[in-house]
Design goal:
CATH class: Mainly Alpha
Shape: elongated
Strand content: 5-15%
Number of strands: 2
Structural class: mainly alpha
Distance between the termini: 22 Å
Order of helices and strands: HHEEH
Strand order of the largest sheet: 1-2
Number of domains: 1
Length: 100
């Protein structure tokens, strides 16, 4: 068993697994929060009625989906912050054993 634990520590698999599980488990919650709470408030703040994801910049015949990009960016920032917070709060950065 000690050999297995050393392998896990040396390879950094614990951090990867925790990041994967946390990212997957909070993804739907964060997406709902962004879509249902943040996007409508930002859209109102920008003088638009409806969803932030509906904001489009038209350049000739092209449609630049500015609102969709901003919504996805907000999702990413919140998920990255939550994963970082839990990783540091649980002191999981100390689990990986450094090779000398």
């Amino acid at each position: 068993m000690k050999g297995f634990v050393d392998f896990i520590r040396e390879q950094g698999i614990i951090g990867l697994a925790i990041g994967f599980v946390l990212g997957g488990s909070i993804s739907k919650l964060v997406t709902s929060m962004v879509n249902d709470l943040i996007n409508p408030l930002l859209a109102l703040g920008l003088g638009r009625v409806g969803e932030l994801r509906d904001i489009v910049l038209r350049i000739g015949s092209a449609k630049v989906m500015v609102g969709n990009f901003l919504g996805t960016l907000i999702d990413f920032v919140i998920i990255a912050f939550v994963i970082y917070f839990f990783f540091k709060k649980l002191k999981l950065d100390r689990l990986d054993k450094k090779r000398v």
